[in-house]
Amino acid sequence: MNLISYMIQLKVAVALNYELFQGEENDAKIKESASQTRDVLKQHFNDLKGTLGKLLDERLVTLLQEVDTIEQETIKPLDDCQKLIEHGVNTAADLVQEGEIAILGGVGEQNEKLWSFTKKASHIQLDSLPEVPLLVDVPCLSAQLDDSILNIVKDHIFKHGTVASRPPVQIEELIEKPGGIIVRWCKVDDDFTAQDYRLQFRKCTSSHFEDAYVGSETEFIVLHIDPNVDYQFRVCARGDGRQEWSPWSVPQIGHSTLVPHGAVFVNGKEMTNQLPAVTSGSTVTFDIEAVTLGSSNNNEGGNIKLREC
Fold it and tell me: Where is the Fibronectin type-III domain positioned along the sequence (predicted)?
C-alpha cells in the first residue's frame, strides 16, 4: 500500500509540476505578446503622427503659396496705377513751378519761358490718368476653413485599430513529406470571415520569415525543406472586404526526416497544390525526374515526359 500510495503521490506531483510549468509558460506568453502589442501600437501611432504632420505642413505651404500668388497678381495693377498717377502729379508740379518762374522773369526772357511753358503744357494729358478702382472692387483675401474635418478625422481615429486577444486562424497540423511539409490551418473565430490566408515560414535559426503562400486554401505544402532542420510556420488571414491582415497565429515548429524524391514539373512549374492554369484542349507536359535511392547497379537517373492533350 505504501508503494502504491507513493506512486500515486508521485504522479500527482508530476502532473502538478507540469500544470505549473504550463501556467508559467502561458503567463510568459501573455506578457510577451502584450509587450509586443504595446510596442507595435506606439510605433504605428507615432508613424501616423509624423505622416499627418507632414501632410498638414504640405497643405499649409500650398495655401500660403496661393495667398502669395493672389496678392502679387492683384497688387501689381494697383502699383502700376499709382506709379502713373505719381508721375503725372510730379510732371504737373514741375510745370506749375516753371510757369511761375516764367511769369516773374523779364519781358524777353518771360516770352521765351512762357512759350516753353505753353509747349510743354500742350503735351501733358492730366485727364488721361488711370482710374483708381473702388474699395469694394479691390480683392480682400480670406481663409475658408471647415471645422467639420476635425469631426471626420476624430471619428476615423477613434475607430482606427483594434486589439485582438487571439488570432482568428491557427495552424492545425504539420505533416512531413519528402523534402517538404504540409501545413494545415483553420479558423478559430466563428465571427471572422476570411477572404485570403497568408502562410510564412523560416528556419528556427533565421530571424526573417518568408511568404510561402497567399490564397483562399487552408493547406499548402512548403517545398525545399532541408531534412532534419527545424522550421517555424505561422499564418494570418484577411477579412472579407478588408485590406489589412489579422494578427499572426502562434508559430508552430516542424521538420521533415524524409529525404526529398525527384521533382515533378507541370508546364515547367514544380508541382505543389498551386498548379499552373490548364485550359480544356491545351497540351500539358509532365517532366518527372527519376532519382535512384540507395545502392543500385544503375545509378543513372532519367527524365520521363508524358504528353497529354
Answer: 167-260
